[in-house]
Write a structure and sequence with these properties.
Helix content is 39%, strand content 24%. By secondary structure, it is of the alpha/beta class. Strands 3, 4, 5, 6, 7, 8, 9, 10, 11, 12 and 13 form an 11-stranded mixed sheet that branches. Strands 14-15-18 form a 3-stranded antiparallel sheet, with helices on one face. A two-stranded antiparallel sheet has the order 1-2. Helix 3 packs across helix 4 and helix 9 packs across helix 11. It starts with a helix and ends with a helix.
Length: 408
């Protein structure tokens, strides 16, 4: 490609961007029209649930619409609450549109660690359009720009969104005016507003809680989320939750203290991890999601936690750039207790699993028994991760030194 023509073309793109921003009164000097190489990579937002993070490749990319749907009582609102808490850790507000009732899900928020003072709560409106307009008024300023203070909009649930046309019809014709098609039309309208109003431009994620319905007319009848065809296309990530039969957790007195949740990623177009991953987590009543179990399982799958003999474990993790190792631990219960009772081991193991997962996805390699193939040689994965981190840090320091020298 001719260098002069390329520079002229890039200059034209910059000029059009400046003109477009001026016409639309875009503040902050943000570029809206960019070459593909200038578009930054999306930051991943953790779901607060290691089991689900694994299924999604590390979390939910900012600026993404995602849906959590499933059977009754399985824990959809709890799962969404954990994501809300993670967004708040980024010093962001969360808009929570509760379409089903006027009470906050305080217990779910408490278990997940949600700060109510950083939740903008919209309770059940007269119609779905009212709630959507309220969100738009909060989120979009007088220049048509979305606020960068809002990190997430949660709608709980799509199934309960009541179209204005339906409400007016009910007033005139009674319940006969209720039709499924009107709700599907409202859902489609909601997505067009999301995509057309810039809700996603500042990295805001849109989380949709939904119920599942049997799809009539096909054999066998699959369970799909309600809300019409739009729900199949707009969300980049769709996660189905199921409560298995006999999935209750019992204590020593045979009392039910929790249940198992199975999940299935039915769609993942975010480009971080492949779709159709399956997994599970445990919900302990009055405690919340068990996050240690999935971390231990993933560490075992990578070989970070080694099992040199049956039911004999050796835990390994990274702490302050060094690899730490435990003595032999006898039994899975003792292993869980060992991790649970040490904040250093918990944090180190979680960080190690996250970094190994990212290494595996970035380099498209399989990690078996704690080893990875580097230049045709089997290498300890934790040693490789530590070495790579050291190289990256050295490169950043070198680049900063060169930049400071040039500026001086």
């Amino acid at each position: 490609m001719d260098t002069d023509k390329k520079k002229e073309f890039e200059k034209r793109i910059s000029s059009v961007n400046t003109k477009w921003n001026k016409v639309h009164k875009v503040t902050g000097g943000r570029d809206r029209i960019r070459l593909g190489s200038d578009v930054p990579e999306a930051t991943l937002i953790s779901t607060g649930n290691p089991a689900l993070d694994w299924g999604l490749g590390g979390g939910i990319p900012e600026g993404t619409i995602f849906e959590i749907f499933g059977s009754a009582g399985v824990g959809k609102t709890v799962a969404m609450s954990y994501i809300m808490a993670e967004v708040q850790k980024l010093d962001k507000y969360v808009i929570y549109y509760h379409t089903e009732e006027s009470r906050k899900p305080k217990k779910a928020w408490e278990l997940a660690g949600v700060d109510e003072n950083r939740v903008i709560y919209i309770d059940a409106r007269n119609s779905g359009e009212d709630g959507i307009n309220a969100i738009k008024d909060i989120l979009i300023n007088e220049f048509g720009d979305p606020s960068d203070l809002v990190g997430m909009i949660a709608v709980d649930s799509i199934s309960a969104l009541a179209p204005n046309a339906e409400m007016n019809s009910v007033e005139g014709n009674g319940v006969e005016g209720v039709t499924v098609a009107r709700q599907a039309a409202l859902t489609s309208k909601l997505f067009r507003v999301i995509c057309g109003s810039g809700w996603l431009q500042e990295g805001c994620i849109i989380g949709l809680v939904n119920q599942e319905r049997s799809q009539i007319g096909t054999t066998p009848m699959p369970n799909v989320s309600s809300g019409g065809k739009a729900m199949q296309y707009y969300p980049k990530i769709k996660v189905q939750l199921k409560a298995p039969k006999d999935g209750y957790l019992l204590d020593d007195q045979k009392q039910i203290i929790g249940h198992t949740v199975h999940y299935f990623v039915t769609k993942n177009n975010a480009g971080i991890a492949p779709p159709y991953k399956r997994g599970s987590w445990k919900v302990i009543y009055n405690k919340g999601i068990d996050y240690l179990g999935p971390v231990i399982d993933e560490a075992l799958s990578y070989g970070i936690i080694k099992e040199p003999a049956k039911a004999r474990f050796v835990a390994r993790w990274i702490s302050d750039g060094k690899i730490q190792e435990s003595d032999k631990i006898h039994g899975r219960v003792a292993l869980y207790s060992y991790v649970e009772n040490s904040k250093e081991v918990q944090d180190g193991l979680q960080e190690s699993v996250s970094r190994v997962r990212q290494y595996s996805l970035s380099n498209k390699v399989e990690i078996m028994d704690g080893l990875v193939l580097v230049n045709g040689k089997e290498t300890d994965i934790l040693e490789e991760v530590v070495a790579q981190t050291t190289e990256d840090t050295t490169q950043v320091v070198l680049e900063n030194t060169i930049e400071d020298t040039l500026e001086g």
